[in-house]
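Possible regression after last week's pipeline update?

I re-ran a chain I had predicted before the update to compare outputs. Posting the input and the new output here so someone can diff against the archived version. Not blocking, just want to make sure nothing changed silently.
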Amino acid sequence: MAYYFLSDEEFDRRVAAGDFLEWAWVHGHRYGTLRQEVERVTGAGSSVVLEIDVQGGLMVRERVPEAVLVFVEPPSMDELERRLRGRGTESEADIERRLANAREEMAKAPLYDVRIVNDDLERACLELQQVIDTYENNGGPSQDVCDQA
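New output (post-update):
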């Protein structure tokens, strides 16, 4: 799916109109998934994999109860901090905000259907593919998500 960059006014208008399947404030910015984009793909007989935050995932669950929610988590908070610092792209304040958000999100992981620990990228990707394949065997076509990482 494509990214759309909207002005604050347009984003507000679309929220009020119910155009988003989900949307949330994440790390000081608003993100969302347009309902029409998801319906376009599912209407063509394919499933959709959304890479969204916990707030958005839970909003999708409310609106699409049959959705399969997969929580991808770091092996530990220490490892998450190491990864964030290793990027070298965020300020100390941003890192602290992300870590605080991660603690809150981890507390909501039990609300998801499946949890995958991202301690080995190849294994985590294969686990995700297995979840998708299991779902697709009961529904529709699947593409290999591991090759798109």
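Follow-up from reviewer: compared with the archived run. The longest strand covers residues 20-26. Marking as no regression found.
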